Amino acid sequence: MSLGGSIKFVFLLLSFLLLSNFGKSQELVVNYYNQSCPQAEEIIKQQVFSLYQKHGNSAISWIRNLFHDCMVKSCDASLLLEMKNEEGVVISEMKSPRSFGIRNLKYVNKIKQVLENECPNTVSCADIMALAARDAIVLLGGLEMEMKTGRRDSKESYGEMVEEFIPNHNDSLSLVLSRFQDIGIDAEATVALLGAHSMGRVHCVNLVNRLYPTVDPTLDPNHALYLKKRCPNPNPDPKAVQYARNDLESPLVVDNNYYRNVLDHKALLLVDQQLGSSPITLPYVQQMASNNTYFLAQFARALLLLSENNPLTDDQGEIRKDCRRINK
Ligand code: HEM
Ligand SMILES: *[C@@H]1O[C@H](CO)[C@@H](O)[C@H](O)[C@H]1NC(C)=O
Ligand SMILES: *[C@@H]1O[C@H](CO)[C@@H](O)[C@H](O)[C@H]1NC(C)=O
Ligand SMILES: *[C@@H]1O[C@H](CO)[C@@H](O)[C@H](O)[C@H]1NC(C)=O
Question: Where is the Plant heme peroxidase family profile domain (predicted)?
Fold first, then answer.
């Protein structure tokens, strides 16, 4: 072996050892609460179900909320923190413009209370968010998933950094793909995750830039007329509850209608529509539009990737008692 060769070899060996050690201290496992709180997953599933029966859109919210939690640094329930700085001003990721429209966060604490009664100080808020999203997906027509647990809760809020991680509604496709790539989510999985936009609503503030002063040429003209009816004001009051549904046919089902809408130029956000005009993403859009089984499998794969982004484990973070506050 040449000198260069052996240096390369030693380097590879070292990186391997380092990586495998890091891997060990950062592992989530299936059934993490098996011993410490055997009923945890069942309790969460029941709670998600009863909330869904009362407020159907809570199921949709679990999915968006997990995205906003996991994408920003780590799946660590930092999204839920309402901290005060020294001047008494509330710092929260929810204050970022990217968090606009996030709803139903309060239900995490409802589930947390039931778990605290059953097994105090044991189940993290971060795991509740992840498992709730998993269970919600089944209620909305998605696949069952085996999801690892053992995430711990952050002691920090990343309120100042949200925009570095979560793209805007009108960002370029290359920016969107690179943000997801940064956390190990490939283009196919990114296309699948955006299928979450087959559910729920978009407020007019996130749409009007495609309608006024001129209609975005990538938007179907008839659909634009419909959207203008939903959003008649080019400068909507952000507080007004004016919105359009992502998927008129099945707003409460996770399905591949979203991709058919993209191909028909009826996607609502610019980031959605762009998936249909790039050679990187268009083949996935076409395949997902024509095969719901394939879409659902990719969606499940992608959601698991997202749910495992950079978790806090072992002695990192803490198990919060109240999901809105770090422990005293
Ligand atoms: C490029 C990435 C993304 C951008 C720019 C984005 C942006 C948005 C925007 C602007 C809304 C509308 C908010 C409103 O007006 O109320 C929305 C809604 C939603 N997003 Fe995303 N999103 C992205 C990715 C994702 C991902 C990865 C998921 C989940 C896997 C997701 C799940 C949802 C859901 C479920 C809604 C509907 C929420 C509701 O009806 O309450 N989004 N998104
Ligand atoms: C839970 O733990 C017990 C005892 O360690 C083990 O026998 C069982 O297989 C575990 N169950 C699961 C689903 O991991
Ligand atoms: C994206 O939309 C926002 C309003 O939501 C606007 O202020 C901004 O200029 C837009 N950016 C681009 C690149 O069009
Ligand atoms: C749809 O996708 C599934 C999963 O990838 C695959 O097994 C099946 O053959 C596909 N069906 C068609 C009609 O292409």
Answer: 27-327
C-alpha 176 to ligand 3 mean position (Å)? 15
Determine whether the shortest distance from the Cβ of 45 to ligand 1 is under 6 A: no
The tokens for 249 are 């046919």
pLDDT tens-digit series, residues 227-283: 999 999 999 987 777 888 877 777 789 999 999 999 999 999 999 999 999 999 999
Q: Considering only CA atoms, which residue is closest to atom 6 of ligand 4? A: 294
CATH class entry, domain 40-165:
mainly alpha
What is the distance in A from the centroid of ligand 2 to the CA of 92? 38
Residue 120 is given by DSSP the state: T
Q: Enumerate the domain spans of the chain.
A: 40-165, 173-306
Catalytic residue positions, numbered: 68
The string of DSSP codes covering 217-262 is: TTS-HHHHHHHHHH---SS--TTS--EEES-SS-TTS-STHHHHHH
Ligand 4 mean position, distance from CA 286 (Å): 13
Q: Is the CB of 234 under 6 A from ligand 3?
A: no
pLDDT given at position 251: 78
Each residue's pLDDT tens digit, 139-191: 999 999 999 999 999 999 999 999 999 999 999 999 999 999 999 999 999 99
H or E, element range at 201: strand 201-203
CA-nearest residue, atom 9 of ligand 2: 34
Write the DSSP symbol of residue 309. S
Say if pTM beats, i.e. exceeds, 0.90. yes
List the residue whose alpha carbon is closest to atom 12 of ligand 1.
Answer: 202
